[in-house]
Amino acid sequence: MILLKRDFYRGNIVRILIAEDDPTSRELLKLNLEAWGYQVSLCDDGGQAWAAMSQSDAPELAILDWMMPELSGVDVCRKVRQLVHGRSIYIVLLTAKNQREDLLEGLEAGADDYVTKPFDRQELKARLRVGARVVELQSKLMEAEQTRVLAQTAGAAAHEINQPLTVALGKLDLLEMKLGDDHPLQKDVESVQGAVHRIEEIVRKMGEARKYVTKPYVQGIDIVDFDASAHA
Asked: What is d(CA 116, CA 123) in angstroms, rounded to the nearest whole number?
């Protein structure tokens, strides 16, 4: 069984976190982003932003105000970039600072882009479009890499399983011949043979599949459907 963590990117709907301690600015950002088609979640300090972004299902984009209570936007950037999943979050710093040294500090902390206050609506929209394209590209690259790794894993597993399967089937055939048709254990042998042949068929499909179709397994986890994948 190959388990896959379900991808939280949903087509053209990009989730974005706004971390801004000023209520007016926060509401203005929210209204604009929702009008542009983003799914928005809100935080009013750096501690809340860090808590949200440290989760494995964190939003794909984040707008962080530079100056916030508890943790600054720059501090949140540094902490998020230390996380494995945090490397793929596109972070835009919102700041009143416009000195070259300040902006470099933000970028070196891990921000992908910045917008100065008071923000220009069209500039922000354009910069977020870039971020959304980057997120989409990252999602496609991750999907391609996942498919490659799955193909290699399934191929290697199929190769390793085939040899003991061949031995098992051979032993079962010999046992069937020795027992004879009237032996009381003959039906049990045939049942085991059927199960082994089923495993053999699954292994064959594992080796042939190049595009993987998944199905839900438990909450947040998918498994590869090899029957569907063999015909994809």
From this structure: 10
Q: What is the pLDDT of residues 167-213, one digit of tens each?
A: 888 888 888 888 887 888 888 888 888 888 888 887 777 777 666 66
SS3 132: helix
Nearest of 117, 114, 118 to residue 77 by alpha carbon: 114
Report domain extents, the chain.
3-141, 144-229
Residue 110 is which amino acid? G
Amino acid type, 192: V
Torsion of CA 59, 65, 70, 71, to 10 degrees: 70
On whether the pTM is more than 0.85, the answer is no
Specify whether domain 3-141 bears CATH 3.40.50.2300: yes
- The string of DSSP letters for 50-84 reads HHHHTSTT--SEEEEESS-SSS-HHHHHHHHHTST
CATH class of 144-229: mainly alpha
Q: What is the pLDDT of residues 72-118, one digit of tens each?
A: 999 999 999 988 877 888 999 988 877 778 778 888 888 999 888 88
